[in-house]
Amino acid sequence: MYQCFLCNEVPPNWTEVSYASLAKLAGWYQDLEERANFVRSWMLTGHPSAYWLSGFFFPHGFVTAILQAHARKHQKAIDYLKFKFNVLSVGMADEQNQVIGADPSELEKGPEDGIYVYGATLESARWDNAQHCLIEQCPGAI
Question: How far is CA 93 from CA 34, 115, 123, in A?
Fold first, then answer.
């Protein structure tokens, strides 16, 4: 472990019980702190108005739980439900015409049905706010 610390690498015994990450130790530790703070805040203050999707160890399980909660609330068979995603832009309004900013902490509460998420990432594409669709990534972007 000491050698890993000197080389800014996550020790192997930590990666065995951790989430998948290619980050160096300093970035990995900062991400771990942010994840712990998100969950701690959720535990102490209740459901957040927006969920940090990439902060979950297993996002698929969380998304499935949201689908199940919706199915129970509306007494519908989960097998017939599908997700619908709306990408909200800066200054866009929600169902109650409440203006939503770029910072998730600006949201006062979540929607009546569904959830707000942030932190989703794209590979080999980018989001165009003007056209409200996916477009090719910038040349040379990683």
Answer: 28, 15, 27
- Asked if the structure places residue 73 within a domain, the reply is no
pLDDT of 99: 47
Averaged over 66-76, what is the pLDDT? 93
Contact 59, 53 (CB under 8 A): yes
Map tokens 């049905």 to a residue: 113
Q: How many domains does the chain have?
A: 1
With respect to residue 57, please indicate whether it lies within any of the assigned structural domains: no
Q: Is 129 a member of any domain?
A: no
- Which three-class secondary structure state does DSSP give residue 94? coil
DSSP 3-state assignment of 51?
strand
**What residues contact 58, with CB distance under 8 A and at least 6 apart?**
none
- The Cα–Cα gap between 46 and 36 comes to 15
- Determine the pLDDT at residue 103: 73
Mean pLDDT score, 96-101: 50
User: Hey, how many other C-beta atoms are within 10 angstroms of the C-beta on 116?
Assistant: 18
- In the numeric block, which tokens belong to residue 72? 């129970």
Decide if 67 is inside a domain: no
Say if residues 125 and 134 touch (Cβ distance below 8 Å): yes
